[in-house]
Fold these 2 entries.
Entry 1:
Amino acid sequence: MKRFFVTTPIYYLNGAPHLGHYYSTTIADILARYHRKNGAGAFFLTGTDEHGQKVAEKASLVGLSPQAFTDELSTEWKSTWQNLDISYDHFIRTTDDYHTAFAQEVIHRLRENGAIYEKEYDALYCVGSESFVSKSELREGGLCPDHDEEPQIVNEKNWFFKLTDYKDQVRRLIETDVLEIKPQSRKNEVLEMLRSPDIQDFSVTRERVTWGIPVPFDENQTIYVWIDALFNYMSALIHSQGIETSERDIQDIIKDITDIWAPDVQILGKDIVKFHAIYWPAFLLALGLNETQLPKKLLVHGFFVSGGRKMSKSLGNIVTPQSVSAEYDQIIGASRGNDVLRYYVVIEMMIGNDGDVTPERIQEVYQSDLVNKIGNTYQRVLGMARKYDLLTTRMAPEKQEKLAQAIQHKSQAYMNQQDLYGYVHYCLDLTGEIGRGIELVKPWELAKNGQDDELKYHLSKWLTALEIIADLWEPIMPASAIEMKSLLAGNQGMLFPRIS
Ligand code: MSP
């Protein structure tokens, strides 16, 4: 059986991880955890994108060599993810030797296959997005559409990729959902791009960028950072599985990783769709992969802003995952603070939309959902179970099994669509039903009237349901799901304390 293969973008090392990066990574983490528990296993890949002009410029600003700079920062990123309990299976650095060798093999193969050619040209290059921009894409004042920067004019002799040979095939693959792009608005946007005259052959090597992987057959050039970066998804998997690569071509190597390859879901933000939806499949086709060997789905998310404005140091509105997590560790204890942020990013915006994050809003969601809805229901049912000495009672095994299956069937439908928002709402609805049941049944009256069988019947049903729901919460709030189960097993504790 094929494992579920999920990827995040690899992050540029020009600062510490912020909430935007956390969002991509957390979505992937949730999907990986879900498939490990409910499917044929998962392979979750993340890492850092370390080459290119942008990183080199940042390094020189702080007076470090690019290598020393990236060594330092990638260690910080790795430990941030570890501290936040991100369950990646492999962390790639594009400066890793195996990746460098693989990227060189890729460019060599592209040349062998006649997919690249040499050309001298003039173009506009935006360092912020490490990409060429056409004049028609520029914003007012000649600025890059995604950055407040004026692009540089570049005149170089480079190797060009024949994107025009592949764009019709890529368009058909997207139209027919062989390569799915979610949400639909992003799919439309990509199809629009593919019809535009701006989609032309483009340069995949750079003459002046020295902080990059050398082109093996042209000593004046380094590999364009986006080719280098996109192929992390393949090099990392091959390396992590210990596959022998020497003297083998890529199509042959792929045969050894079919238990994981191709990516089932690739998570990315809306700013990097073109690279993933157009360049990436085109490169893979140019290497000779067939249509069944391409990534299956791109899940494109929106952007987080803070208080209606882009997060920035000067505005002082940056919300970091580390600080939110530490703040709620203080309130909940037992290193469960990160669960609050995980819950928040899922419930606050449907994947694809933009969202606004402020500490006040996180607190509101904590109180209204985690404390009042979830925590309160667990605490009420457990309180009564303790009071009436029914803590260990559960539904009969066959009934339990039936209920679990019905619930899993529904929750699976959400997860198979990567609809985390729908999934969490479904969990909340189930919890809400228990709350409504308590009000309707009034267990305290049953106890008072000596209706013991009925009391036991209802409590066993609610306790069983809460156990099943705890399982559903596991991918979203892993540490809290453990706490839920511990409470249901009779241990003392508080799920989500109220903030005074
Ligand atoms: N290095 C490239 C990706 C190469 S993948 C082969 C890159 N890196 S990045 O660090 O700039 O961005 C990584 C991801 O973080 C992107 O998906 C981007 O959309 C996401 N985010 C960066 N800022 C964001 C927000 N404020 N909100 C949500 N996500 C955003 O691009």
Note: Residues 443 and 455 are 6 Å apart (CA to CA).
Entry 2:
Amino acid sequence: MTQILGFGGYVPERVMTNDDWAEIVDTSDEWITARTGIKERRFAAEDEATLDLAANAAEVAIKDAGLVAGDIGEIIVATDTPEVYTPDTASFLQHRLGCDNIPSYDLGGSGCAGFVQALDVARARIAFSPRNVLVVGVELISRLISWQERETCVLFGDGAGAVVVGPGESSPQLLDVVAGTDGSKTDILTLSTGGTRDPFTVETAASGAHQHLTMNGREVFKQAVGRMSEAVAEVLEHVGGTIEDVKLVIPHQANKRIIDAVGKKLGLREGQAFVNVDKFGNTGSASVPLALWQARDQGRIVEGDLVVLTAFGAGFHWAAAAIRF
Ligand code: UT7
């Protein structure tokens, strides 16, 4: 049995509005709002890096759990925008939080599905060896993608979310997690320069290829709607629930139109899907835990509620989790 002990989140102070973007690239508030539902997003300050965002969210979650750093037995950080290339962000986070010598590692490269995948890993670890696991989703995308490419730059925001999960019978219970990957679709969302296939060079830096996120927006949209809807249905089947039983679906916050299309496919009631993409944009692997933390704090979830998380990400990955509060 896996219990969620605490929730946390953090967003940087700096607000970047659609009008701010319109001063940098050829875009408009009307276009961004109509196509994505995003009105503004948060960007990290110059002196902030991924670790700072992760640590802030983690501290909130540990405090919310009524625990201290010494009570944490393992750390998993889901991110595609790490503090440095090597070692992983989790190593820095372990030291910053003061968690002594516990296993800590990143789950990197799965885009926005990373946090829900990490929850799945955490529950397996807990079943094998009972311990409290800190699971963080963090992204500082604004620093690693091009600010010249209007097709992608306006979509993203920076932030972090976290939970502490551990063994226990009380609520909220993490009832089940489902996940899947279709590796034939690696090309629909990729930042491919900088790895061993296409190493970083002076020429790369000059051309900006290392910041070029290649995205087939329409295909990602289609896959996102299909896979997130199927994952929700699958996890509900596993836990013996129906969509009518669900108080709140918390989908990855990529685009309001994607959330609406998932809602239509699943037959969701008005307000049954949580939305904060208007305020934060797409915060990658931070989006689901950030939304979960906010939904709980806003009183959208109370004792007894069934909540379903779902996400998709570059890979192409998808996942869903069912939680009984
Ligand atoms: O975590 C995963 C991240 N990715 C996603 O979630 C992406 C999923 N896909 C989407 O959200 C949508 O496909 C987009 C929002 C990216 C685009 O919406 P769309 O309705 O699929 O637009 P489109 O690709 O059909 O592009 C329409 C037009 C194009 O111009 P032309 O060729 O019709 O003249 C683009 O050049 O919109 C243009 N465009 C823009 N115009 C103003 C693209 N980006 C912008 C922009 N501002 N920022």
Note: Residues 175-324 form a domain with the Peroxisomal Thiolase; Chain A, domain 1 fold (CATH 3.40.47.10).
